[in-house]
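Dear Dr. H.,

I hope your travels went smoothly. While you were away I took the liberty of generating a structure for the chain from your last submission, since the lab meeting agenda had it listed for discussion. I wanted you to have the full record in hand beforehand rather than looking at slides cold. The sequence, exactly as received, is reproduced here:
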Amino acid sequence: MKQLCLLFLALLVVAALATPSHAVSYTWVGPTGSWSNAANWSPNTGTPGGGAGDYAYVNTGTCTLDSVPANPIERLFVSSAAGTGVLSIVDGANLQVGVTGANSAYVYSGSAAGASGAIYQSGGTVTLAKTGTGSMRMAYNAAGYGYYGLSGSGTTLSIAGAPMIAAAGAGLFEQTGGAVTMAGSVYITNGAAAWGVYDLSAGSASANSANGGFLMARAGGNATVNVRGTGSLSVKHSMQIVQSGGTGIVNLGAVGTGGGTITAYTIQSPIAGGVFNFHGGTLKAGPTFAEIIAGTTPDSDFITSDVTAYVYGEGAVIDTDGNNAVVNAALIAPNGSGLSSIAVTNGGSGYIAPPIVKITGGSGTGATAVAQISGGVVTGITITNPGVDYTADNLPTITLEGAGGSGYTLGTIELAANSSGGLRKLGAGELTLGGVNTYTGDTDVEAGLLSLTGSLASDVNVLTGAALEGTGAVGGSVVAAADSSVGPGTSIGTLTVAGNATLAGVLDVEYDSGTDAIDVLTVSGALDMTGGTIDFSDIAETPVALTQDAYVFATYGSLAGSMPTVTNAPGGYHVDFAYEGNQIALVVPEPSTMLLLVLAGLTLTFWKRR
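The corresponding predicted structure, in token form, is as follows:
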């Protein structure tokens, strides 16, 4: 019996040694100092991460992490009570919150009414290891404020779960460097009262959810994403600007300077009202994504027709990057006037991070801005989108919310007339424009193929090696360089040009001998094909001999320049450049004409017609 008791006691000792120590909840009492100093925490018997599954609360003061805790912590709260708390993560830090799998792992900020929490990561590595929900919740309370600032060239933030920027209150994620990877769906606002901003001006971010996406205005609220400067955002799945109600705005490029890149499979707005603003940044098409969203096949369009897409004066850049992309949303010129500046007459005090800039009311819509601070004082406001249709007699209301500060006053709101730029099409692959596009700048096809099935308001320039095709209408003129290609139709069809057409490359004319149909280029102004080539190809599945005497494939207001080279004309036909007036046609020569052609050695001579 005694031996059995001793054995039982030994087993209890072994079990106790094998059981992890109970999690400790540490509260920062600093008020400023180092995470690794136990005297700055209560209880002051250790520091978060000294044991397994510890909790850390930073509800006041500033805590600086410059070390590597021995263990992952379970939960991190920055301002879970009214007041302000700041966590600064610097070089040398390596913080892991949670473990992979089912264990809870939370980073909360602003999780109580009147609470403002800010996390500044200027160095080191932060890993939120838990998969699924419950990883990062910024502005978790409807009356709270949450901030995450990422900077530094080698700084990394890895989120295995689904982060929420402005889960319920006012949240700002400001990235001026570093790299963010997000494995789960990303939410920008998740409540009717939420106001969330993701401002990416440098560094990279990737949203890698396989079946979710980058979801804005998920359950109402006001969601804004700015990608500008050297910032780069990659979205593996869809970018949904208004996912289930509220207001969503994406600004690509900085007002006046451009920059920024967004790569996505599709840009859509499941609830109508999402706005995408081009300010000179590059929108890059990701590869076709075969998986489904919520049990339905994703829209195949690159920018869907339920998105309002403005092209401001800085212009738009779309890079198909070897993929094929369809834009059925109209790319339109912004109307009226927008905000050009907001004066700060008194920056107030006590701001632990930039407050949210709320722009509401007035005659117009869509204006967005971000604030800057220094030493707790608001020093300026940067317009990230001017908006449309604002008037001097009905200006919007501007308020600054959150971040623990107060006492600010704003001055004059200036307006400026909006302008529109053009579109640059980059990269291999095909871009189809299917909308009624009203942007006023030139469309430059620099690489790949532009297929126009809608309409353009202005000129098109097709550069060397690039191609233009389609059944749409060009409101201006077309200039195609040597070694470029212009092809009416997408198989057989008509391409209409309201202005002039100068084609130094190939006019690619397809015909279908099986149906006796042929492409048609209609030019209202002057057609000049000096140095160019007209090339014919039969697209019939089973080619047969043509039967008609004439096939018109171009019309014009006038001809200019010299005769192009003709290649691959169907047997028995030649090109008549003045067929029945101002038309160009494949025709069967009359006998007398054929004799003259034979006597002339079938030589084409210089011509000029005006």
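Two observations you may find useful: The first strand starts at residue 25 and ends at 28. Residues 23-184 form one domain.

With kind regards,
E. W.
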